[in-house]
Amino acid sequence: MSLTQQQWIYRQQPLAAITAEHYELVEQTLDTSLAANEVLIASRYFSVDPYMRIGQSSKPTYDTEAHPLDTVQAGAVVAQVLASNSPAFAEGDWVSAYTGWQTHAKVNASILTKIDPQQAPVTTALGVLGMPGRTAWFGLTESGKPHAGEVVVVSGAAGAVGSLVAQFAKRHGARVLGIAGGEAKCDWLRDTLKLDWAIDYKAFSDADTLGAEIKRLTGGVDVYFDNVGGMITDAIIPLINRRARIVICGQISQYSGGLETPELGPRLLHHLLYQRATIQGMLARDYLHRMDEMRRIVAPWVKAGEIVFEETIIEGFEQLPSALNSLFGGEHRGKLLVKA
Predict the structure, then answer these.
(1) Most exposed among 106, 118, 154, 307, judged by the fewest C-beta atoms under 10 Å?
(2) CB count in 10 Å sphere of residue 217
(3) 123 pLDDT above the threshold of 70
(4) From 3.90.180.10, 3.90.550.10, 3.40.50.620, 3.40.50.300, which CATH number describes the 2-126+310-339 domain?
(5) Measured between alpha carbons, how far apart are the two ends of the chain, in Å?
(6) Is 322 helix (H, G, I), strand (E, B) or coil?
(7) How far apart (Å, rounded) are the C-alpha atoms in residues 59 and 189?
(8) Are 186 and 157 in contact (CB under 8 A)?
């Protein structure tokens, strides 16, 4: 037997915005016969993440090589088992995998992780109980090390990672300022996530005026969890307190065009000297072996409804390239997914 498989093939490196010319949608026949321990899956939800754009840079990143051209765009999915030749999986099981932008895949059972839909919505495996949750939890607790009463500032606070960091910081007893683009997002941060403060960075024309407002609200910054970079970081570094911790998780303001020709970085590092502060980069992959630890802590909060995990779901496999590009315009809130 066979079925029709669709794939998005990465054809051309983008230098700025991602458009249709950078990908090609192809169809081919997939033989569904299975070897020992193989499983046939149908992808139901596709994770759309900023790191995908980093992988397309021709400059050095955390990978030794850029995402190869003429291959399926890599990425995480939530899928269902259509057929199994493995005792570990049965038809109908929900699984997560890193099989990329393709509607179906034949894979070895060893690369699949079973999902229990009774514990939480299956999409959480790509969000709060997946890579974004791992990034937020370990980035904050291992690098940020917040203490009760401290001020934690989160840029990109309405995003998949930032919204979780903000909530985890509140659970540590910190006072939290979320920075996001647009008053609607800021209202959500204050009213739904119950942050102490929220600032719409788009209401400020330069780092000095933004910094003055952050200073007025917080008095100073103990932990800065940076997902954005650019002007926001320029505004915050002069406000850090003694022994402040700066966590560099992302620089999304630079991803759509700035990866090849980055903007001039902040010349404000003397403030780290003055305040004996630290600045540390973190990658989710460094904590992959601790996923079970994170889930043991966070999953009960999710099940009890104590963590808000917003999802923006775009319908249609054909929408994947435009969905990826939309990450850099800030139109969505929470975790961005595409539903097949």
Answers:
(1) 118
(2) 15
(3) yes
(4) 3.90.180.10
(5) 22
(6) helix
(7) 35
(8) no
